[in-house]
Design brief:
Radius of gyration: 22 Å
Distance between the termini: 41 Å
Largest sheet: 6 strands, antiparallel, barrel
Order of helices and strands: HEHEHEHHEEEHEHHEEEEEEEEEE
CATH class of the largest domain: Alpha Beta
Strand content: 25-35%
Number of strands: 17
Helix content: 25-40%
Strand order of the largest sheet: 12-15-14-13-16-17
CATH topology of the largest domain: Rossmann fold
CATH superfamily of the largest domain: HUPs
Number of domains: 3
Oligomer: single chain
CATH architecture of the largest domain: 3-Layer(aba) Sandwich
Number of helices: 8
């Protein structure tokens, strides 16, 4: 896409959003005869199927999409148009909300600042908390008179005990409950997650049988604000200055080489370290103040404990005494048995029954009940 096309695309999308905002100011929700659900729609097959399923279940569905990226060439912009097309298919309202400034200051800027401090961020988890269950939920309350908000996440809200509990998806391969740890209990009460009862293959089949225009859209695995074909390190290089420093073997103390900036590394990294050695080396720790990257064998990555801050509890009351649970330290890692010790200042200390590899600052600690069914809470790993 040329610079001219990109500018035209951005202006087109700005016009779409401004029209939506103007309509929202004049919009008076029709008297509700059914329960109204605002569906967060990205233009992907999952959120499109969510809207379709809830409509089939008898809900009054309204689509809502946040415009997150200033460039007109990103998938989020295309997704906004696709979401509007699905809503047109389903004959439901679609609202586009300009959240570009909020997304830039709270998500994008935080991404580079985290790497600057040797923390590996999880922007998708922050986006869930600040954008979907933050700005979009507020919009749904204020402008749409919505009773619930819904997304295309593969997780479940279990209300069988008389209160809402966040539960794993029935499709263990696709479960996304881990990234929803930051929801408050009040937000969870207003949440519907219909895809938690389906597998991804089933959702594809449902979307295709309904002839949704997004049924065959490919699933994106990349961060939406990093241009296609650009590595994380190349992207960060636009915002963070090079600060060369030594690469040191954590066990021998030997100087193995020099790097161009600690932001190019994350705990557990093996490829791209830039030194030759007789055995595989992994990044074991990073000192951003002294510009030192420590490397070592896989055994040097193992740790049995961690602390986490800004802990959010989804239990009815926040625990005050130590308890045993299941815990995980990254999205794709398995859960492990651990003792959870609540601390003052909204923090916890965690001791794992077995040492864990590459515990990484800035990632999320997910805490599950002993049966590994329900999310009890989570926090940011220190």
């Amino acid at each position: 896409m040329s610079a001219v096309d990109d500018k035209d695309r951005t202006q087109e999308l700005e016009a779409v959003v401004q029209c939506s905002l103007a309509a929202a100011k004049q919009h008076k929700p029709a008297p509700k005869t059914k329960t109204r659900v605002a569906v967060c729609m990205s233009g992907g097959v999952d959120s499109s199927a969510t809207a379709f399923l809830l409509q089939q279940q008898g809900y009054d569905v309204v689509g809502i999409t946040g415009w997150l990226i200033k460039s007109g060439s990103r998938c989020c912009d295309t997704g906004m148009i696709d979401a509007a097309r699905v809503c047109e298919q389903l004959n439901v309202e679609h609202h586009a909300v300009d959240l570009r400034e909020l997304f830039r200051t709270r998500i994008i800027d935080n991404f580079s600042e985290s790497y600057k401090r040797a923390r590996t961020p999880l922007p998708c988890s922050m986006c869930n908390t600040l954008i979907k269950w933050g700005a979009l939920l507020n919009y749904a309350d204020k402008h749409l008179d919505a009773d619930y908000i819904a997304t295309g996440h593969y997780a479940r809200v279990d209300r069988s005990e008389g209160f809402a509990r966040l539960a794993r998806s029935k499709d263990s391969r696709k479960d996304q409950s881990y990234v929803l740890w930051g929801l408050t209990r009040a937000q969870l009460d207003k949440t519907l997650l219909p895809l938690g009862d389906f597998t991804k293959d089933q959702i594809r089949e449902i979307a295709e049988s309904a002839n949704l225009v997004t049924a065959k859209r490919k699933e994106s695995q990349d961060l939406c604000f990093i241009p296609i074909g650009t590595s994380t390190q190349q992207y960060l290089g636009q915002f963070l200055e090079e600060r060369p420093g030594p690469i040191i073997h954590v066990e021998t103390g030997d100087l193995l080489g020099e790097h161009q900036g600690t932001h190019n590394f994350t705990i557990g990294q093996r490829r791209g370290i830039g030194v030759a050695y007789s055995e595989p080396l992994y990044v074991t720790s990073i000192d951003p103040d002294m510009c030192i990257v420590y490397v070592g064998p896989p055994s040097a990555l193992l740790r049995s404990d961690l602390t986490a801050s800004e802990v959010n509890w989804l239990t009815q009351t926040a625990p005050t005494e130590p308890f045993e649970a299941k815990a995980k330290i990254r999205y794709n890692s398995p859960v492990e048995t651990a003792m959870i010790y609540p601390l003052e200042g909204n923090r916890v200390r965690v001791e794992f029954a077995q040492p864990q590899p590459a515990i990484t600052s800035g990632q999320v600690l997910g805490i599950y009940d002993p049966t590994d069914t329900y999310v009890l809470g989570g926090g940011w790993i220190d």
